[in-house]
TrEMBL record:
Residues 3-210 form the ABC transporter domain. Keywords: ATP-binding, Nucleotide-binding, Transport. InterPro entries: AAA+_ATPase, ABC_transporter-like_ATP-bd, ABC_transporter-like_CS, ABC_Transporter_VariousFunc, P-loop_NTPase. It comes from Hymenobacter cavernae. This is ATP-binding protein. PANTHER family: ABC TRANSPORTER ATP-BINDING PROTEIN ALBC-RELATED (PTHR42939). GO terms for molecular function: ATP binding. Pfam families: ABC_tran. PROSITE patterns: ABC_TRANSPORTER_1 (PS00211), ABC_TRANSPORTER_2 (PS50893).
Length: 210
């Protein structure tokens, strides 16, 4: 998946959140979107993925050499963010059965295989409502990282994770980033230190890290 932004700007009411981003997010690359609280990282992530309408500028999406209409982007993306909710009335097994019907897992991975990768075997039949906040975050991340989607969006991915959870995230994000376009909104270096590009939402100074 490739996203090309030209003069991209977003305003809420009278406030410009970001202005004039011109940048191509290349397939197979990972970009960290950085900036202090309230600077517009989540807004940029949601605008780039077509979930929020830009105030000015254009976005062009391509996948495997074909233009993609903005309406088709949701089918191609996997998203993990603190403000996205899980269906808490389902057990883990039920939730995976439901979720993977419209967001399939990558080839060769079964629901049971994903449960094992998330180390949630003992919670197969537990209601998601009764998961700890760290278990919920691991589940949200597992669903996004292991979805068969060429665009991966992660907003504050280690929210609620303990040390073991952070290490789990670091291992699995690297294992699943290959070949995808990955965008990570973050303030925590260990969430994005593998990213090849850093994009500061307050300045749009785009700099490669290596
Ligand atoms: N729907 C909305 N209507 C009006 N203002 C909004 C809306 N969504 C976000 N904002 C404002 O846009 C600004 C940027 O918010 P955003 O959530 O994108 O920042 P952020 O950098 O992701 O913050 P954080 O690091 O705290 O998650 C904030 O001032 C916020 O209040």
């Amino acid at each position: 998946m490739q996203i090309t932004a030209a003069g991209l700007s977003k305003r809420f009411h009278r406030d410009w959140i970001f202005r004039d981003l011109t940048h191509t997010f290349e397939p197979g690359t990972a970009t960290a979107i950085l900036g202090p609280n309230g600077s517009g990282k989540s807004t940029l992530l949601n605008t780039l993925s077509g979930q929020l309408l830009a105030t000015e500028g254009t976005l062009t999406y391509t996948y495997q050499g074909q233009l993609v209409a903005v309406e088709e982007v949701p089918q191609l993306l996997a998203y993990c963010a603190p403000y996205l909710e899980l269906i808490e009335e389902l057990t883990l097994t039920e939730l995976l059965q439901f979720h993977t019907r419209f967001k399939p897992l990558r080839a060769g991975l079964t629901n049971e295989g994903l449960i094992e990768r998330m180390y949630l075997e003992k919670s197969r039949h537990k209601l998601v409502r009764d998961f700890s906040s760290g278990m919920k975050q691991r589940l949200k991340l597992g669903l996004a990282l292991y979805a068969a989607a060429p665009l991966l969006l992660l907003d504050e991915p280690t929210t609620n994770l303990d040390r073991t959870g952070v290490e789990w995230y670091r291992e699995h994000v690297r294992a699943t980033a290959l070949g995808r376009l990955v965008l990570i909104s973050s303030n925590v270096a260990e969430e994005y230190d593998f990213c090849s590009t850093h994009l500061d939402v307050t300045s749009f100074g785009v700099k490669p890290t290596r």
